[in-house]
Specification:
It is elongated and about 90 Å long. The two termini are 50 Å apart. With 572 residues, the protein is an alpha/beta fold. 47% of the residues are buried. The strands form 5 sheets. It has a 4-stranded parallel beta sheet, with helices on both faces. The chain has a 4-stranded antiparallel beta sheet with strand order 5-4-9-10. Helix content is 47%, strand content 12%. The protein contains 22 helices and 15 strands. It has 3 domains: 200 residues, Rossmann fold (3-Layer(aba) Sandwich); 133 residues, Methionyl-trna Synthetase, domain 2 (Beta Complex); 144 residues, Isoleucyl-tRNA Synthetase, Domain 1 (Orthogonal Bundle).
Length: 572
């Protein structure tokens, strides 16, 4: 029976383009994961969308002198184009929507009113930063200062990126208005609060519960399969005790508060954006013509929900969102939250203000998507921060994709095409080396699948590359270019074995390298897509015509290192 897998991916603020940190942080691993499970025959839905209501959007709009709606629409369109060019398969696997839909607003209002009716939302007064100079309250990113927890001097009024702790603006040391730089004063404002404190022990029990997932994977605990940094941070945060948190803000851009007299306030983005996982699943189901399909992911206890995020979003997905779900009731909690750490560029932290970043669209204007997908997976920040460098990009492309995997494919296909009538040769009896290689193919496919199921993407890719190297060694040892004149039957067996291994590699690499895998699929004379063949190896049929071979990858020149490094920090 097929598993039901809901892949929920962080909602990017629609205030700027996608860069490599975003891709490595959550969008690429989520796409690989969804592609694998679709290939494995599971029922997969992948959802996300543009976060149009985050204050970064209103900040950008004020800086540009435009409206938040205009900024959000422009970047949403760019996100969709980035996903298409990069192979992030929302279109094939689900939906990339926005928080600006009527469906999202209705879903947020439904949860808001249900929590209010059950006593988990209440009105209260809270101190907020108010800029006298601009004559307005300063929600989250409208105020910056020093973090009271780790002393980072670039914390925001919603969270400190350095230590990951959620904050309120009044907690900041030496606060200042983001726009005018003036020191704001503290004023009281009425808001709705989520009674987070009521869920402290319940969340701890959920986090530590050994029997929580028995219906799915036996008695494994989250501690045994969640990433250590995610589990430890969440447990430590809960052990310190939760405080109730305001879920509305003094701002006029966002989801309206469904209460008379609250027309000039909006539901705070951290509360409504995570509800987008549910609203997007509902919207996707309606678009697919199966309006109740979302229930199979959210209400079937055997379904698994994965939240792919960056580590700065951890508390919102392991504490606040589960608390909202507990308060609402009847919906599945996250099964796993495989948050990635940060990616730096050439040894320095990303800085969008200083343009110390590699933007996805800029990259795609000059290079193919698969080499970047390959490098970011091989260097994915799963358990610690990692670094992107153009020298490493060049090395991975030339030494591994071109010289190892690509060269294997090209020389086998070219030799077969030229010497066996442009078709798959008929093999003779398999000797031990040939049988051993095919046994390795059969063993590697489920091993890589296990790594992908457990969100160990680097290890999964390493397993596929190791098989490519073994296939190269087999070909070198058999030397079909030498045996062609003396033993044509043995040569045919070698090539057929190598083609079978390549067919296996195509399936292994397809979640990681979708564009080159589709190209190889066609070079092997296959129709349709690799995904349609599942996780099995389709053995090449003797006599099957193969088209004229072409290289899978392009070798890059050393000069790109200097050229691309020089672009860092320059005006975009």
């Amino acid at each position: 029976m097929a598993d039901r897998i809901l892949v929920c991916v962080a909602w990017p603020y629609a205030n700027g383009p996608i860069h490599l940190g975003h891709l490595a942080g959550c969008y690429l691993p989520a796409d690989i994961f969804a592609r694998y499970h679709r290939t494995a025959g599971n029922d997969v839905l992948m959802v996300s969308g543009s976060d149009q209501h985050g204050t970064p959007v209103t900040v950008r709009a004020e800086q540009e002198g435009s409206s938040p709606a205009e900024v959000a629409a422009r970047y949403h369109a760019e996100f969709l184009e980035t996903w298409r060019r990069m192979g992030i398969s929302f279109e094939e696997h689900g939906l990339f929507t926005t928080t600006g839909t009527k469906n999202h607003e209705a879903t947020v209002h439904r949860i808001f009113l249900a929590l209010k009716e059950r006593g988990y939302l209440y009105r209260g007064s809270m101190p907020l930063m108010y800029c006298v100079n601009d004559q307005r309250f300063l929600p989250d990113r409208y105020v910056t200062g020093t973090c009271p927890n780790c002393a980072s001097d670039h914390a925001r009024g919603d969270q400190c990126d350095e230590c990951g702790r959620p904050l309120n603006g009044v907690e900041l040391i030496d606060p200042k208005c983001t726009f005018c730089g003036a020191r704001p004063e503290v004023r009281e404002s009425e808001h709705y609060f989520l009674k987070l404190s009521a869920f402290n022990q319940q969340l701890l029990d959920w986090l530590r519960d050994e029997g929580q997932y028995q219906a799915i994977n036996g008695a494994r605990t989250k501690r045994s399969f969640w990433r250590p940094a995610v589990f430890n941070f969440s447990e430590r945060f809960l052990a310190e005790g939760l405080h109730d948190r305001a879920i509305t803000r003094d701002i006029e851009w966002g989801v309206a508060v469904p209460e008379p007299g609250w027309e000039h306030k909006r539901i705070y983005v951290w509360f409504e954006a995570v509800i987008g996982y549910l609203s997007a699943a509902i919207e996707a189901s309606e678009r697919q013509g199966v309006s109740d399909r979302w229930k199979s992911f959210w209400q079937d206890p055997t379904a698994r929900i994965y939240n792919f995020i960056g580590k700065d979003n951890t508390p919102f997905h392991t504490i606040i969102w589960p608390a909202i779900l507990m308060a609402y009731g009847g919906l599945n909690l996250p099964y796993d939250v495989p948050a990635n750490e940060f990616l730096s560029i050439e040894g320095k932290q990303f800085s969008t203000s200083r343009n110390w970043a590699v933007w996805a669209q800029d990259y795609l204007d000059r290079y193919d998507p698969d080499p970047l997908r390959f490098l970011l997976t091989a260097n994915m920040p799963e358990t610690g921060d990692t670094d992107f460098s153009w020298r490493e990009f060049l090395r991975r492309n030339n030494d591994e994709l071109v010289a190892t995997y690509g060269n294997l494919v090209h020389r086998v296909l070219t030799f077969t095409y030229r010497n066996f009538d442009r078709s798959v040769p008929t093999p003779g009896p398999l000797d031990e080396p040939s049988q051993e290689l095919l046994r390795r193919v059969d063993a590697v496919i489920p091993a890589v699948g296990r790594h992908l199921t457990e969100c160990h993407f680097r290890e999964a890719l390493r397993g596929a590359m190791d098989l490519a190297r073994e296939s190269n060694r087999y070909l070198d040892e058999r030397a079909p270019w030498k045996t062609l004149k003396t033993d044509r039957a043995a040569t045919a067996t070698t090539l057929h074995t190598a083609l079978t291994a390549i067919a296996g590699l195509k399936q292994l690499f397809s979640p990681f390298l979708p564009f080159s895998s589709q190209k190889l699929h066609e070079l092997l004379g296959r129709e349709g897509t690799p995904e349609a063949e599942g996780r099995r190896v389709v053995i090449p049929i003797p006599g099957q015509a193969i088209p004229e071979p072409a290289p899978l990858f392009v070798k890059l020149e050393e000069q790109i290192i200097e050229e691309e490094t020089a672009r860092l920090g320059q005006p975009r």
